Amino acid sequence: MTWPSLPTTGALADWRQAPNSRSRKLSALNRLRILQEDFRGAVIERIHATHNEPSIRERVAKFVSVAVNPARDVTQAVAIAYDLGVRRILKGASEEAALAFSALVKESQAATKAQHWNRYAFLLGPTLVVPCVRKGRMQLELIRPDACDIQQDPDDPMGVPAAAVWAAHGGGASFVVLDGESWRYLDEQGREVLPRSVHGLGHFPGAVMRLDDPADDWWPRNYQERLVDGTIQCAYIYAKMSWVRKAQNKKLLTAVGDTESIAAGQMLDPELALTANTNTANSLQFDVHDFNTSPEDFLKEIRFTIEQIVESYGIPQSAVSFDVAPDGGALAMVVQKEKLGHLRAAQTPYLERGELGLWPEVVAVARVANHPLAGKLPPPDEVRDMLAIEWPALKVIDDPIKREELYQLRLKRGGVSPVDMVQEDHPLLTREECRTKMQGNVGEYAWLVDAITSRGLVMDMANGMMASSEAMGRLGPAVRDAALAPVPTLAAPDEAGNRM
After folding, report:
1. Average pLDDT of the segment spanning 61-71
2. CA 281 to the chain's CA centroid
3. What are phi and psi of 249, to 5 degrees?
4. Where is the domain boundary, 334, 358, 389?
5. Is residue 227 one of the residues assigned to a domain?
6. CA-to-CA dists, residue 410 to 136, 146, 407, 413, 417, angstroms
7. pLDDT digits (tens, 9 = 90+) for 344-355
8. How many CB atoms neighbour CB 291 within 10 A?
9. Sign of the C-alpha dihedral, residues 433, 434, 436, 437?
10. Are residues 98 and 30 in the same domain?
11. Whether 405 contacts 421, CB under 8 Å
């Protein structure tokens, strides 16, 4: 639920609202609707702004579709910082503390929520992540910019806010206010309708996930306007194409001559014959003409718009491919993975800044709320000092055979170690955990070798498991005889050191 304007009474009477707060939230709401594929209204507005004739507006509006959605496609392709997960490690912590922290992170469902705050930060703007404990479990609230207002911290105006208010999601309240002392729950008039929840931390217990450095305003202005406008334009062109092709996608039947002889009330249906009663054979001539407007020009216009959008993010046109059905169906955009590495690298420093601010607050909230793991967790200040965020390398080669070939080449020149390859296959494991896994693999392999050899079998990498005799037979007579020949021995040397 989105509230463009806050009440000016009750607990929010002294809340300082920015003059552009309403327009800023409505703009973010429009971007959210595009992300959620619910932007038909914006396309219809574009149709009304483009066409003056009411009947044309009505006809084109019937064909509005969200099938073409570059903003969502670009967001899904570019906001990929968490696609391989992220390793959150307390370096130097005791085993008990490290395991408790890992369990708390897992319980918060950060593995799935992180992808959402990455996409929100990319398309919508700064997103708050607020930890809270409900029913004894750690949860992370994602507060989007379309339903949020903040109070800046006088000591750090462009950093984590001093307080925030956002639209509540049920529970008998309309708004939630969080500041350095407590959670408050308000109705539409700003009156407290539920008991306060005091945390007493003395600061805002949350973090900001954003992909920019604010300069003169905490909220970015005209955020992703190019992407939004291009998406609406593409959807409008697609609607216009569908409207034109509704009537111009077939053969056109024409009749010249005594048209009065054609019986009234007949349907121009390809499955039914058209009859006419004429006195002479030549009094009425029928002909068939092509009346099929190709979708090609419309799709070229859509492609051009999308290419201009993606180039603004540093993605060359050569890295983008389009797939469209022969009849002009929905157009899909695919971006080459190897071109996305620099875009991901540009996001991770901002997201890492948010992560480093988030997890000490998660631990602080867990300790205040007497979470079951609280007694095993280090103090928040120690978490801040020990916390390390590691981003797995982006996989640009999907073919496992080609990946193995590249690994072998890099291994020869010392560019990687076997641990690197294991960690690439298991990106959420630390290097120490990868070593433990490798040791376990070696133990299992030794067990397999013992099980095979104890039964008189051998494992041939090319042909699988077979009897020793069969394996020797496959070697050929010369190799087999050499392998079975006795090993010559040398006699002991005499007193002069000569061997006989």
Report:
1. 93
2. 68
3. -140, 30
4. 389
5. no
6. 48, 47, 5, 6, 9
7. 889 999 999 999
8. 13
9. positive
10. yes
11. no
Token pair for 441: 């693999």
Task: Name the more confident of 4 and 57.
Answer: 57
| 355 belongs to a structural domain | yes
Are 83 and 127 found together in one domain? Answer: yes
Final residue of a structural domain among 389, 416, 445: 389
Count of Cβ atoms closer than 10 Å to residue 409 Cβ: 11
Domains held by the chain: number: 2
Identify the domain containing residue 405 by its residue range.
397-453
Are 150 and 187 members of one domain?
yes
Give domain status of residue 271, yes or no.
no
Nearest-angstrom CA–CA distance, 275 and 263: 7
Which tokens sit at 353?
Answer: 């800044």
pLDDT digits 0-9 by tens, 276-332: 777 666 677 767 666 556 778 888 888 888 888 888 777 766 667 665 544 444 455
Tell me the two tokens of residue 213: 């450095």
CA dist list (Å): 288 to 246, 251, 256, 294: 18, 6, 11, 18
Within 10 A of 361 (CB to CB), how many other CB atoms are there?
22
**Distance (Å, whole) CA 201 – CA 179:** 9
Please check whether residue 338 is in contact with residue 396, taking contact to mean a CB–CB distance below 8 angstroms: yes
Angstrom distance (rounded) from CA 206 to CA 176: 14
* Residue 128 backbone phi and psi in degrees, to 5: -85, 140
**Looking at the structure, do residues 47 and 93 belong to the same domain, yes or no?**
yes
Residue 250's H or E segment, with its range, is strand 249-257
One domain, residues 117 and 203? yes
The answer on 425 and 380 residing in a single domain is no
348 shares its domain with 434: no
Question: CA-based angle 147:152:155, to the nearest 5?
Answer: 160
The runs of H, that is alpha helices, within 51-170 are 54-61, 70-78, 95-107, 110-123
Could you tell me if 487 and 476 are in contact, meaning their C-beta atoms sit under 8 angstroms apart?
no
Q: Cβ-count burial of 171 within 10 angstroms (0-12 exposed, 13-18 middle, 19+ buried)? A: exposed
Strands 87-90 and 457-460, bridge-based pairing: unpaired
| Contact in structure between 364 and 201 (CB atoms under 8 Å) | yes
What per-residue string of b and e applies to 74-86 under the rule 16 or more CB within 10 Å gives b? bbbbbbbbbebbb
Do residues 170 and 127 share a domain? yes
Which residues on adjacent β-strands are paired with residue 290?
A: 251
Entry pTM: 0.77
Is 269 among the domain residues? no
Nearest to 93 by CA among 328, 336, 379: 379
Bridge partners, 285 (sequence order): 256
